Amino acid sequence: KYLSQGGKKGKKAIGDKGKGGKAAGRINGHHQENGMENMMLFEVVKLGRSAMQSVVDDWIESYKHDRDAALLDLINFFIQCSGCKGVVSAEMFRNMQNSEIIRRMTEEFDEDSGDYPLTIAGPQWKKFKSSFCEFISVLVRQCQYSIIYDEYMMDTVISLLTGLSDSQVRAFRHTSTLAAMKLMTALVNVALNLSINMDNTQRQYEAERNKIVAKRANDRLELLLQKRKELQENQDEIENMMNAIFKGVFVHRYRDSIAEIRAICIEEIGVWMKLYSDAFLNDSYLKYVGWTMHDKQGEVRLKCLTALQGLYYNRELNARLELFTSRFKVSTTLSSSVLCSPCSSTDEVLTPEDCESVYHLVYSAHRPVAVAAGEFLYKKLFSQREPEEEGAPKRRGRQSPNANLIKTTVFFFLESELHEHAAYLVDSLWECGAELLKDWECMISLLLDDPLPGEEALTDRQETALIEIMLCTVRQAAECHPPVGRGTGKRVMTAKEKKTQLDDRTKITELFAVALPPLLAKYAVDAEKVTNLLLLPQFFDLEIYTTGRLEKHLEALLRQIKEIVEKHTDTEVLEACSKTYHSLCNEEFTIFNRVDIARSQLLDELVDKFTRLLEDFLREGEDADEDDAYQVLSTLKRITAFHNAHDLSGWDLFTSNFKLLNTGIENGDMPEQIVIHSLQCTHYVILWQLAKLSEGSSRKDDLVTLRKQMRAFCMMCQRYLTNVNTAVKEQAFTILCDLLLIFSHQMVSGGREHLEPLVYSPEDSLQAELLTFILNHVFIDQDDDTNSTDGQQDDEAVKIEALHKRRNLLAAYCKLIIYCVVEMKTGADIFKQYMRYYNDYGDIIKETMSKTRQIDKIQCAKTLILSLQQLFNEMLSDLGHGFDRSSSAFCGIKELARRFSLTFGLDQVKTRDAIAMLHKDGIEFAFKDPSPQGEGGPPLNLAFLDILSEFSSKLMRQDKRTVHMYLERFMTFQMALQREDCWLPLISYRNSLQAGGDDDTMSVMSGYSSRGSSVRSKKIKPPVATVGTPAPKRKLPEGTEVKSVADVKTMQTPVMMPSPHLTSTAMRDPKRSRDDGYMGVYPLPHEQPPPHPHPQHHQQTPQHHQTPMDYNNGVSISVCSRRGTGLMEEDEEPIVEDVMMSSEGRMDDLNEGMDFDTMDIDLVRNDVEIKSNFFYQICL
């Protein structure tokens, strides 16, 4: 049982009396029973070992004895259930407002963990939520006759929960919202009981009053009136409590930023509507459910559907939802689990137009929705069948009752105008209409038999749709899994499902083995119908050809396929024939020899014909007419289609095709399609030979032959990259990329070391040509795509197809980068297009960056900075060195740099070396070229530092100092004193390196200068080079105007932005010095020090081994960094949780490119630091 202690352990609790007092044998008014040790209410509910009613009864007893102590226990119970370690004391309870108590408890939270009892995983917390909810329900139920009306307990609890539900702390908000909603549900039950009692009392009163005067009991009438008055008062009080909870908690939390909290609110309001429909089932409450159906989280939408489903199932409540249904019709049509259940029983709810919007959900990618919509469609359109007469023979084929239903399916499919999605329609209807969809005998009859008298025959379009649906049903029955995009992974089939699959395959083979030849004969000239029909043998059980004595039908099928090959030149039809031969040529079955002979005869005829036609065609040369070219092309297309699935190594196709391609290069007048198919056929020759050699049973001569053929073919494809025809160039490029990838260094992995002689690495010239092709044919504007001819430039479908083709070309090249076939630096030309072509190729480029980073982080960083440098040089060539940094071109490069920076993620340790190398290359590029204005002007590329500053936030704090030191090696003393606008990039970059820097980075000078004047006291002449100064040293020459450290420290930072004031609990000693060789010139501008009384002399600064550029030939003093502001960088903004959803977009920018190692965030030790010579080490 529940035993409580009101205060902290060791303190005397409220309600405790002295020895021998009334409370002897109690603790906080609670009996100790069954030897159970004293524990707090939270622990009792957490353990869940006691009957909840017993726990509540003990609390009620303590409340009657000392309500303040018991209420304090209840308050602490809610606080502890939120995961807070704090305890509300009696003094706090008496003297502080709820808001002050909540603020105090917020400070007691354990900041090391974000978990709290409702979210903690583990067996001991598994039942906590149910025990917590049960406690609240039982508490109200046990108090419903007295305590909840004392205007103290409920007022205090509701006030506390309302305050907690408005907290910024998620744990408080989540726990208190759940408690308030369960409290509301319990009050609804109380209100419902009061309403029933009031009705009963009213009926008793009316019955007593209607009696005759002699039998009427006036005393009973007065009692009933008094009872009704008390019930009414209690009802009013309960309604006030419910209004307080609804307006104080629900109205705010149903749109909380946390989906779980929103789901709690919607789940409970559904319970209220069902329990107490008279009060809650109206538009004032239904609107919240309707609005929340648009929630972006499926969990919340599901709660809405569950709530509505319970209402729609109830016919009495359903009638009161008419206005809601009409108002939120669009939302409900998107929720099939609501529509498909209630609307099936209430046909008047939706109009035919509304039903049509539900029908289209059968094409949904989400299978449960599609299946539910399929059931809805089946019940609406297919549930009414023609009744069959008893004793009459079962009608089959065209006279089957399913004939009209199959036609209806065809009509629906055609009217939906989604002709490429028949497989999805079949899958949606499969669970409810499998019997209909498996009536292949009826389908065959509709296609082959003549229509009955008075029956309208199917049109050509309807026959095409029926064949497509028939193929999809056969595939669904044979494969037993949903189409692509709907599957949830491989599912283990049950024994019953496996038996059904075998039975269906047997039935398919028996029916279509007989019906397929006449179907092919009837539709032999229709390419689309023939293509679908030729796919049916893939699902046959070929053993039945022998066991069922169906060999004659096999012979008929082979004859029909041969005739189709001879009649058609369409690629899809020829490939379907090739796949059919491949399916039938299975060595496991006895029909193999018969099919293999037919296939060999067909291929012999095709190859002989091709060889003869090709010789004549090449002999005629320019005199060849179009008929000769067409004959060569049609035969070559047939051979290529078969070579895709069959090994034609027995026929020497490489020699003839290579000869044809070489002639095309020499003459330049070879028809486009002939070249394309010849390239493809030769490609297949190479791949089939490689497949045979990969088996390990190859000879050395075969390796040598394949090596020569492969390299000669690659050179041929390279020559065709300069062809005038775009389609030829695209084919050559695609094949080249495939071959380079296949014959790369990775082909020897997996125990294939014997293939090492075949490894081929592209030369620099080939890499350059491939890159040039990508830049000229992929990164182009839509209007520049010359491949969209025939006046269809404005056709959206043509544009989409052209874009799809360009995406494939880019993906082929990016694979070469990812697998290190070409140098990674060539990716710079790809990466720099990321922003400009983001909509078209952003996903491909982003994935390429991700993969290259996984291969080599440093080389990837060098590639990214190289792409920015290329864009910068292009901008300089277009705008000149005097460009405006606010121009769109420069801002575009900065934005690209920002996007690149975000792709590095949040884990600075993993990307540490890469970011450092990126800064090193960027600094060297900025100071590489001298100023076009002569000595004293900014370097040509100095503005690049403004772009480089976008990556400063990715540097670890201690690494910023090292990067800053590296920057100082390129700076002269004059540069540090410049304040013109042209020097702003240098200043802003230095500031970005100093922001958040450690105090250890401060030099002696910056320590003094923190108290220095913000006004320049005197002008300093630029240092003059001394002829006798040794090269390895930097020192001040004689005659320099700078006489002391005080002179230097009084100089103002050139155009230095004022530092924001840093609020900190401790400030470090600013006088701590850095290396003696570095002296600072940048003071902090916001403090005014007294004049320094003693001049100090500059120390000589050793010069590092890397000499600055020509414009740095003056003597310089290295510039040190000032103390950083300590403010967070942009991407280091702490992830905080706002209460309302309106603030959820705050992290959108941060999430850009977050798929690159961003989730594993390690804590960085402050003592980790890149050494000063790091940049030279990583270059080696």
From TrEMBL:
GO molecular function: chromatin binding
Pfam families with a match to the protein in the record: HEAT_SCC3-SA, SCD, STAG
Record-linked SUPFAM superfamilies: ARM repeat (SSF48371)
Keyword terms: Cell cycle, Cell division, Chromosome, Chromosome partition, Coiled coil, Nucleus
GO biological process assignments: cell division; chromosome segregation; sister chromatid cohesion
GO cellular component: chromatin; chromosome, centromeric region; cohesin complex; nucleus
Domain SCD, first and last residues per copy: 250-335
Superkingdom: Eukaryota
Basic and acidic residues bias: start-end ranges: 1068-1077
PROSITE patterns hit by this protein: SCD
Location of this chain's protein in the cell: Nucleus; Chromosome; Chromosome, Centromere
Region described as Disordered: spans on this chain: 1-30, 1007-1036, 1055-1108
Biased composition (Low complexity): 1098-1108
Coiled-coil residue spans: 191-244
Family: Belongs to the SCC3 family.
Function of the protein: Component of cohesin complex, a complex required for the cohesion of sister chromatids after DNA replication. The cohesin complex apparently forms a large proteinaceous ring within which sister chromatids can be trapped. At anaphase, the complex is cleaved and dissociates from chromatin, allowing sister chromatids to segregate.
Quaternary state and interactors: Part of the cohesin complex which is composed of a heterodimer between a SMC1 protein (SMC1A or SMC1B) and SMC3, which are attached via their hinge domain, and RAD21 which link them at their heads, and one STAG protein.
Designated name of the protein: Cohesin subunit SA
Organism of this sequence: Oryzias sinensis
